[in-house]
Amino acid sequence: MNDKLIEKINELCSKHKIISDQLEDQNIYQDHALLKKLNKEFSQIDPIVNKYNHYKNLINDIEESKLCLKDKELRMMAEEDIEKNIAKKNILEDYFENELVDKDPNDSKDIFLEIRAGTGGDEAAIFSGDLFKMYSKYAEKNSWDIELLNVTESDHGGYKELILKVTGVNVYGQLKFESGTHRVQRVPNTETQGRIHTSASTVAVLPAVDEIDQIAINPSDLRIDTYRASGAGGQHINKTDSAVRITHIPSGTVSECQDGRSQHKNKAQAMSMLHSRLLMSEQEQRKKNTAEERKSLIGSGDRSERVRTYNFPQGRITDHRINLTLYKLDHILEGNIEPLIDELKKASLN
């Protein structure tokens, strides 16, 4: 490994030690927000530090085996050990490069996940519900938490719109390639002649903005409206003006939250979403100014871009960005989307 990469890892090792010491301090447990932050950072760093310790042990083993090459009786065994340990060392070096070189700074962030029914009417709304279930099950497998922020149900099942906040470890890094238009091909229940219909839903994945990242917003640039929430949510939902919509007037960016009982909580979530949208807009503008950087991305994440097709009659799912087709649609809709995510990650490194 080069010196810069080793320097990065050593910095992480130092940070790992500091956080470990902090987590042993009982006073930390009085501050739940800080404790959550430290545990999240530790869970991200710990695998890298453990693998680096193993890497250093491999280096020592290789050097010790080299000392045995001069011994005729031990030479063959030493050569086998060296070959085996060098192979392990190379695998770890690839791991460190993938984890630490040119990593998206947003990868470790929580996300706002937006799912909206597109073309196709009721069938698109039902498909939005299918996507919601798929991502919910994937989140459950990863021990992520999901909070519903905005839900607009369709009259005939499914959802016209869903906005969720997903919190956990490396959520954005896992789901960032899901943004775009997801197309579904299947025979609706109402179709009497068995014809296949094509519908679509859009998915947007926004990294939740940390306080340190928040861009300056002039309060005079905001219009804040409160209104009565609609849809499912219990008796309180239509009796109080708890729903909040915030409009950033200069950009026309709008964020809203209606799921919580508290207007204060809904306002805080809507403000957090607004920060995320404005930050992502700023980052996208930077990427547009550097065409070479954009070429390295898998698609733009633009909602008009068809990223994936879910074909029910054939049990087929195709990701058009990497020309990957899998014939296990039912399995993937149960939240087992790792084969798609892993291949998208690999392609993004090329």
Concise synopsis of the structure shown:
With 350 residues, this protein is α+β, with helices and mostly antiparallel strands. It contains 9 helices and 11 strands.
Task: Provide an overview of this structure.
The structure is a single chain. This protein is an alpha+beta fold. The chain folds into three domains: 3-100; 111-211 and 302-349, Alpha-Beta Plaits; 213-288, Double Stranded RNA Binding Domain (2-Layer Sandwich). The protein is built from nine helices and eleven strands. It has helices at residues 3-23, 32-67, 75-100, 122-141, 171-175, 263-288, 291-295, 329-333, 338-349, and strands at 111-117, 145-153, 159-167, 180-186, 197-207, 222-227, 243-248, 253-257, 306-311, 316-319, 324-326. The strands form two sheets. The protein has an eight-stranded mixed β-sheet, sandwiched between helices. A hairpin with a 4-residue loop joins strand 7 (243-248) and strand 8. The longest helix has 36 residues, at 32-67. The two termini are 20 Å apart. 25% of the residues are buried. Mean pLDDT is 83; it is low at 232-238 and 290-304.
Overall outline: globular
Name the beta content range: 15-25%
Strand order of the largest sheet: 2-3-1-5-4-9-10-11
Number of strands: 11
Question: Which H/E pattern describes the elements?
Answer: HHHEHEEHEEEEEHHEEEHH
Write down the domain tally.
3
Radius of gyration: 25 Å
Share in helix: 40-55%
| CATH topology (fold) name of the largest domain | Alpha-Beta Plaits
